[in-house]
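FIELD: query
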Amino acid sequence: MNKKILQETVSLARKIYGDEFIPLHRPVFEGNERLYLIDCIDSNFVSSVGKKVTEFEDKIAEYTGSKFAVATVNGTSALHIALEVVGVKSDEEVITQSLTFIATCNAIKYTGANPIFIDVDRDTMGMSPSSLLNFLKTSSLKKDGILINKKTKRRISACIPMHTFGNPCRIEEIENICSEWGIPLIEDAAESLGSFYKSKHTGIFGDIGTFSFNGNKLITTGGGGMVVTDNIDIAKKAKHISTTAKIAHPYEFNHDQVGYNYRMPNLNAALGCAQMERLQEMLDIKKHVAKQWQDLYSNYGIHFVNPIDSACSNNWLNAIILESKDDRDNFLKYTNDNDVMTRPIWTLMSNLEMFKHCQNDGLKNSIWLEERVINVPSSVPDNLLESCKG
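FIELD: result
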């Protein structure tokens, strides 16, 4: 590993973010966050009832172009709700990618189902349509209108691709395959608010999409998630089971099924409303930050991950691909030793103890990427947002 590139990585990070410890991605609160939080406290509506929750849902629906949005306490709960409402049952199977954050697979296991791991494309780091189609053609069959895994004899009940680091996968192609094979499509758009594929926002291609607003995301509610859909029945069911499946009544407590206490609190939604006011500014600034990293690494022939031609990325986490695992490890040690946080991509889900038994298609590209991908600091730098405090 060329030591000069290591030194210049630290130098550029210091130029962008300053001399203190530099995290990978941290939130920016330079708008109306404090004002809206105080409003919530003054109103006494700080929990899961309050106008800010509905307002935040409306803002996300409008921005993404979805007809309906249902707020949840985090991205994992949004995925869990999505799986429940499309009908995933215990001992069934859900097609997903091994190269993902663990929340995707945890949510699948919450339903009692098991993941099937399909390889990704190297250029998007998201599910490969060709790998998906190949698996379906060689490893599944239709029996009485139900898609069955030839090997396990279990029903394949959903497909969850993920838009890695905000870079859209070939989601329209995946949508077409799922439609042809009769598979409910759930988009894990946890990282891709502000990302588009063929001018359409991520998260709204499938039957249902999910977002995360964790503290490290592009915008944050502290902790939070969102389900989006164009299907009114899915939206109603998602809202119902995420609010303990309580039957509406002025004072009686009756519930018609097992539900979940997944409703986002008003305090968290207030943060989200303020953050949405700055979303486009954040996207513009992050694009400039990404350009600086790309310019640096192009001088050394290091591959900087860009969205494919038909996609527009939110540049949530900037990523580079090095030549080898040794280069990756040397890069990680040097930068982190110098208080510039960098990280490798996630350990493949198929290598984790609880998922080692799950079927996969060989995962050639996933394994290759796991050994080489590094994320570099990608936050919006302090004091670059224009003042708009109310």
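FIELD: remark
The longest strand covers residues 68-72.
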